[in-house]
């Protein structure tokens, strides 16, 4: 895969491409840290985090390693459509980095390694990740133990959650991974009390109907991060630019919680 073709394929912003092209990272340094990433990912994170321009450097390393990952896709007969869709996550998080920190770079480096290691794929609107269960799950007479393989479902920022789009993603996932896998989702979108904040015809509430809920975490604050873009200890400081922000803020000010729902996809829904 030609590197410029890769950047075009993931629709990376011209300003971000300029940051990459202006980087002073040498080929020798790149190869050294690339090997470190493969050998000891946490040490790689530590080394790059010590750089003054660490966000820009993470953008450089992730785009170049993502381009090299094309070989894995080709050897495993995975389409270019899935390849580019998967790595457009780099573009999404680069945009987020610009909005949050004022630079074109990557701050979510502990998320994007999954893409480089070919553990996660975007199939339509949703992302699907091969992972290991981290707790006991009992479902329809079956018990899933910690360490058993499951497929995690992730919802990218701005994902189309219409009925047609969601069902197409699930169809692709079953074809890609097989129907014998357990598909699980841990997300604020599955928190049951969202019924108090959203209209009946909400795509989010419809999305919840695809899952059997098996656990709720009331302490997790992912919902606040996603709705308000950042978590604040002083709830009164949350913005009210959208109707969901206004409703969620009032809900929280009333002393209530917005938690996390854990669900299993109803394969035979």
Automatic annotation (TrEMBL):
Pfam families: GNAT_C (PF18164), NAT_N (PF18082). It comes from the Bacteria. Gene3D superfamilies: 3.40.630.120. InterPro entries: GNAT_C, NAT_N. Residues 120-264 form the GNAT-like C-terminal domain. Residues 1-117 form the N-acyltransferase N-terminal domain. This is GNAT-like C-terminal domain-containing protein.
């Amino acid at each position: 895969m030609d590197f410029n073709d890769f950047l075009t394929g993931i629709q990376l912003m011209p300003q971000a491409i300029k940051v990459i092209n202006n980087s002073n990272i040498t080929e020798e340094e790149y190869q050294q840290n690339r090997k470190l990433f493969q050998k000891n990912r946490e040490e790689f994170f530590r080394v790059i985090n010590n750089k003054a321009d660490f966000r820009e450097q993470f953008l450089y390393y992730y785009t170049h390693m993502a381009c090299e990952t094309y070989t894995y896709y080709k050897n495993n007969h995975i389409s270019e459509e899935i390849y580019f869709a998967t790595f457009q996550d780099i573009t999404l998080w680069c945009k987020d980095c610009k909005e949050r920190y004022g630079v074109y770079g990557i701050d979510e480096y502990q998320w994007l390694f999954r893409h480089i290691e070919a553990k996660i794929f975007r199939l339509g609107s949703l992302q699907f990740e091969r992972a290991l269960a981290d707790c006991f799950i009992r479902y329809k007479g079956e018990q899933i133990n910690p360490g058993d393989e499951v497929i995690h479902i992730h919802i990218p920022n701005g994902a189309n959650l219409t009925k047609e789009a969601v069902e197409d993603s699930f169809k692709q996932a079953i074809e890609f991974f097989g129907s014998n896998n357990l598909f699980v989702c841990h997300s604020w979108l599955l928190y049951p009390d969202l019924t108090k904040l959203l209209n009946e015809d909400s795509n989010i509430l419809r999305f919840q109907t695809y899952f059997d809920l098996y656990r709720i975490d009331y302490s997790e604050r992912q919902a606040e991060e996603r709705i308000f873009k950042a978590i604040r200890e002083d709830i009164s400081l949350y913005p009210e630019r959208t109707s969901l922000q206004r409703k969620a803020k009032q809900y929280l000010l009333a002393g209530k919680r917005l938690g996390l729902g854990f669900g299993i996809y109803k394969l035979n829904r």
